[in-house]
Amino acid sequence: MTTVRITDVSKRYGRIDAVSGASFELGQGEMVALIGHNGAGKTTLMKLMLGLVHPTHGSIQVLGEDPAAGQFSARRRLGYLPENVSFDATLTGRETQRFYARLKQEPIAKAEQLLDVVGLGAAVDRRVGTYSKGMRQRLGLAQALIGRPQLLLLDEPTTGLDPELRQTFYEAIQRLAAEGTTVLLCSHALTELEERAGRVIIMNRGVKVADGSLDELRRLAQLPTGSGSKYPALLKARYPPGYPHPRHTGGSTATSSRSMRHRSKRSICCGA
Amino acid sequence: MNAILTITAKEIRQAVRNRWVLAATLLLAALALSLTFLGSAPSGSNVGARPLDVIIVSLSSLTIFLVPLIALLIAHDAIVGDMERGTMLLLLSYPVARWQVLVGKFCGHLAVLAFATCFGYGAAVAALLATGSDMDREGLEAFIAMIASSVLLGAVFIAIGYWVSAQVRDRGTAAGVCIGLWLLLVLVYDMALLGLLVLDKGQNMSGPVLNTLLLLNPTDIYRLLNLTGFANVSAFSGMAGLAGSATLSVRVLVAALALWTLIPLTAASLSFSRREL
Q1: Which tens digits make up the pLDDT trace of A36-68?
Q2: Does A84 touch chain B (CB under 8 A)?
Q3: What is the pLDDT of residue A268?
Q4: What's the structural domain count of chain A?
Q5: Which residues of A touch B96 (CB under 8 A)?
Q6: CATH code at A109?
Q7: Which helix (DSSP H) or strand (DSSP E) does residue B209 occupy?
Q8: With bands split at pLDDT 50, 70 and 90, how would you rate the model's confidence at A266?
């Protein structure tokens, strides 16, 4: 079953083509990583799927509805975490979560349990204005998970999270995906997501340059497979809080992902 | 619970936390009380002006300046401010229509303003009662009508503030445009109208023309409604002359204020729903 269908979609802001001619489908229970530089069109694609901006060309179907046509009942089954999420500073975390649960017409008690899942703990009754970046991100995740969404759109979900929470977060997402939720993760760092996402879509300057499983992409990019499979055992281990995570501190992985993106752009464009 | 009510409740809670409710109520109460005690001094007690009528005249003049200002202050960043803070992006990803967001906010802000007006001005009546002034039924009716029309005037300016907020790109511009509109509608328009009337010397400006010009400014509608609506009040406000020549009934005036609320609110809703985030 297809959750999201994007057909030849373009979005133009003035003279800039934020997205041009992108087409892809996301199936039920799929976990997809959307990768690209800043300004590659990732956030615009998410906004298009939410109906917050209208496509200049092409059509979008999300959970059986056209989001740009002003229909919004599908949004009840959708969770969204914007990049740099922000909340009203004067409300407490609990009040914020209740507010969003009411808007989605979901049971309040269940939504409040999510605050414990993301580990907000005692901070739930403090005003959001006093929260750190990481705590706001946790609250952002909690609101995105309200009501067992069938589609999760997460824009840079793990910024500001410590390694341990990152781990629990991915576990929660994977559990949801296994239960049939489609998850679209946006990031500019491939290393962060490659182990988890079954499929990777790479955007560059608004154009989809690659789409496939990581192994397929590696083969296309003729990348040594060693660099990607070096750490899975490490990654699966839990890191104590504050422990430097090899994925995000090591310079070597960063270079390899950059060179891969670079190469994939060339070879895959030629191949396709 | 309905989406509109949920948003209304959140707006009220935020206004309470921001001390907006407290500040607006205290400001209006302080001014109303000082007018109650100081305002009757110049007229003396032997002129035959009952204290309540004097208060209505002075409070409605105060309202014309203050209530639009408070309303615009609350309303000017309702849309553009939430967009700048980034909270609008998340809110609109939820199953709510944009007009529901706007109406929810409107109800919340209006409730805040209504609370401040009722309690702020109510303090003046309470003070009068406490000092043992006599109050007749007509005076009290005029006072209640004054409070109700003040809230309606607030609604007009909240709607105008939303319209500005839905149009502009940043909060600073919204604030600037709102201050400009306030100056225009509260001060400049009346002065220009007065100038016109003086220059014209009653030759071309007939009653219907004057009526139309008065209906084009919500603060003038409010002024007509309060200062001419009740015979006693009209005599003390010096508006008796105008009340004689302006032949607009209370019903027309209230309808005009309602239109002044609905049109900017609809315009705000339209330009908000066309806007891309």
Answers
A1: 888 888 999 999 999 899 999 999 999 988 887
A2: yes
A3: 40
A4: 1
A5: 72, 103
A6: 3.40.50.300
A7: helix B207-215
A8: very low
